[in-house]
From TrEMBL:
GO molecular function, one term: ATP binding
Domain Histidine kinase as annotated: residue spans: 234-435
Family matches, as Pfam families: HAMP (PF00672), HATPase_c (PF02518), HisKA (PF00512), RisS_PPD (PF16524)
Lineage: superkingdom: Bacteria
Keyword Iron: no
Protein species of origin: Methylophilus aquaticus
Name of the protein described by the UniProt record: histidine kinase
Domain spans labelled HAMP: 174-226
Reactions mediated catalytically: ATP + protein L-histidine = ADP + protein N-phospho-L-histidine
């Protein structure tokens, strides 16, 4: 999700670059099309002038002097004059729109009988026929005079314009991308149950309303969460007071009512546990700071607490690896998972930690009846319980696993419930490593 704005910026820049390249190419082609007519007219006029001057010079000269004059004319300005024999093979003009347009305009001025070809006898140039009396001649004009070289300078200016446009587009896209990135990060914090920071509303006009609406939404959620916490905390506190009086009254019942006292005390304890779970869920753990810890230290402390309670927890620990952890929150998560395993299993609970390439995996395994796999995700939601062998234990509210799942997401991890092939349930917690390196 965090990569979305960067990918969006790259796609925007790529799209702009493609559009610029297409527009520059189209502009060159359009300019070339509309520039072809005046260039062809100028080239044709130049060719006609050369032919007319050459023809006039030959007419004005004496017949005995024509060969010398032809030789003299051929050495000037790169224009050559040859005697022609129209029985020779003459190739048609190439399929070049510009050359054909020049030829058309030359024939308009010199007559339709004028023969025009290019590169005749492998001599480069534009060959134009004319006659003086009974004699036929060729005037050869170098193509450099009638054909424009490739406009490299246009490409240079086009590249400069394209580069400046890309720089401007990048600055504009980056300005749009900055509030988008902040919006994505704030939404990510909300998704993980953390309070979202107030976003600045001085961004581009198109995103200002979105940012303002998001800030209002985040404030409304924060107010709702605070009101919910205050309400449930107040209700829980008010309920605990009469519960304490009720328990005291039960303890003072006469000895003859012992068979009733034990059941009532257990019911009161279950109610107190449910209230405690409510408080844990609404209190949250977002305010606790993370610190670098080895998860094995928490697991060893967990095993010691269970041993003091008369339970033997089987540990199988991987190598040490330090990652950022919220200690109290992670302790609550592990206590809930191990407590569930003892409550719903058959007394044997094993905890295993493994360090993998991109994550640390903690597995809490019991030997109980397991759960239907299709209901595994549902049990991670608040107030979800099942009418099966694993939910016959009283005193729960369906918030224990929801609290665990909330803490796992707060650490960027994932909690899954998996049935073991040999029987029992595995609660598998995965905590990412790459996010912290």
């Amino acid at each position: 999700m965090r990569l979305l704005p960067r990918r969006l910026l790259s796609r925007i820049m790529l799209l702009i670059a493609i559009l610029l390249a297409v527009s520059i190419y189209a502009s060159l082609k359009i300019f070339d099309y509309f520039d072809r007519e005046p260039r062809a007219t100028a080239a044709a006029l130049q060719a006609v002038t050369i032919v007319n001057y050459t023809r006039a010079s030959l007419i004005a000269s004496h017949e005995n002097r024509r060969l010398a004059l032809l030789s003299e004319l051929s050495g000037r300005e790169g224009v050559r004059v040859y005697a022609a024999d129209f029985l020779e093979d003459i190739e048609a003009l190439p399929a070049d729109p510009f050359i054909n347009l020049v030829a058309f305009k030359i024939r308009e001025r010199l007559g339709e009988e004028t023969i025009i070809t290019v590169n005749h006898y492998d001599i480069p140039g534009l060959w134009i026929s004319f006659n003086v009396g009974q004699d036929d001649f060729w005037v050869v004009i170098p193509r450099i005079q009638v054909d424009r070289p490739f406009p490299w300078h246009w490409l240079g200016w086009g590249a400069v314009v394209g580069l400046l446009s890309l720089i401007g587009a990048y600055l504009l896209a980056a300005r749009i991308n900055r509030p988008l990135t902040m919006l994505v990060h704030a939404a990510e914090r909300l998704r993980n149950g953390e309070p979202a920071p107030k976003l600045p509303e001085d961004s581009v006009e198109e995103l200002r309303e979105v940012t303002h609406t998001f800030n209002e939404m985040a404030e409304s959620l924060a107010r709702l969460d605070a009101e919910r916490t205050l309400l449930l905390a107040g209700v829980s506190h008010d309920i605990r007071t009469p519960l304490a009086r009720l328990r005291l009254a039960v303890e003072m019942l006469p000895t003859e009512a012992d068979y009733m006292k034990q059941g009532m005390i257990e019911d009161i304890s279950d109610m107190d546990n449910i209230i405690h779970q409510f408080l844990d869920f609404v209190r949250g753990v977002e305010g606790e700071h993370s610190r670098m810890m080895d998860i094995n230290d928490l697991l060893n402390a967990l095993a010691e607490r269970q041993l003091r309670a008369g339970r033997e927890l089987i540990l199988s620990l991987g190598p040490k690896y330090f990652i950022p952890i919220r200690p109290l929150a992670m302790q609550r998560l592990l206590d809930n998972l191990v407590g569930n395993a003892y409550n719903y299993g058959k007394g044997k609970v094993e905890v295993r930690s493994q360090v993998m390439a991109d994550k640390i995996v903690i597995s809490v395994m019991d030997n109980g009846p397991g759960i239907p796999q299709e209901h595994a995700d549902r049990l991670l939601r608040p107030f979800e319980r099942m009418d099966s062998a694993r939910t016959k234990h009283e005193g729960g509210s369906g918030l224990g696993l929801a609290i665990c799942n909330r803490i796992a997401k707060l650490h960027g991890g994932q909690l899954m419930l998996l049935n073991r092939p040999e029987g029992g349930l595995e609660a598998r917690l995965s905590l990412p490593i790459l996010a912290y390196t």
